[in-house]
Amino acid sequence: MKVAVFYSTRTGNTRRLAQGIADELSAYAPALIDLTQLQGPLPAADCYLVGYWADRGRADEHAQHFLKQLTGQKVGLFGTLGAYPYGPHARHIMQAAEDCLSDSCLLMGHFLCQGPVDPDLLRRMAADKPVAPQAKTRHTIAATHPNQTDIQYAASLFKERLQHQ
Ligand SMILES: Cc1cc2nc3c(=O)[nH]c(=O)nc-3n(C[C@H](O)[C@H](O)[C@H](O)COP(=O)(O)O)c2cc1C
């Protein structure tokens, strides 16, 4: 059983999560591939784990584009976002990412966790209007993810499915 881990990232959070998952799944000798650097044929693997970052309510464009090309593949999804990984916003993003997959693909798990939001974006938001205390708390918590617990949880989610293939 071989695994390939793909990721898209703007500020590095999703790369950190992808790297951690690849390290935890070392038994599957995973290739770790930046979707923006993808060239030539896709690596042969029994399962593709694909990481995205949340961009305006959806998976980012690179990840969406890649997911839409896959057919007949086992696919695990993971991603980072600024919002909490539960609640309607996160659920909407997860569903939108899953909707990119053709019916011929088999979903092997889906994991989301927070990641620090680009400080430039936070500054622009603060300049626009005062940041509510609850949003400040959310940003403070986001800045502590992805952490080791996130990595281990995501990896164990995928491991469990991979062990039963
Ligand atoms: C342009 C932009 C749009 C974003 N849109 C969302 C969003 O819709 N929902 C959300 O929860 N986080 C959003 N975020 C936060 C990022 O998804 C989050 O910081 C993520 O961890 C970034 O991952 P990366 O470091 O791999 O690029 C946005 C960030 C940026 C810069």
TrEMBL record:
Molecular functions per Gene Ontology: electron transfer activity; FMN binding; oxidoreductase activity, acting on NAD(P)H
InterPro entries the record matches: Flavodoxin/NO_synth, Flavodoxin_CS, Flavoprotein-like_sf
Highest taxon, organism lineage: Bacteria
Name of one Pfam family that matches: Flavodoxin_3
Membrane-traversing stretches: none
Domain Flavodoxin-like: start-end pairs: 5-158
Family annotation (Gene3D superfamilies): 3.40.50.360
Descriptive protein name: Flavodoxin
Native source organism of the sequence: Neobittarella massiliensis (ex Bilen et al. 2018)
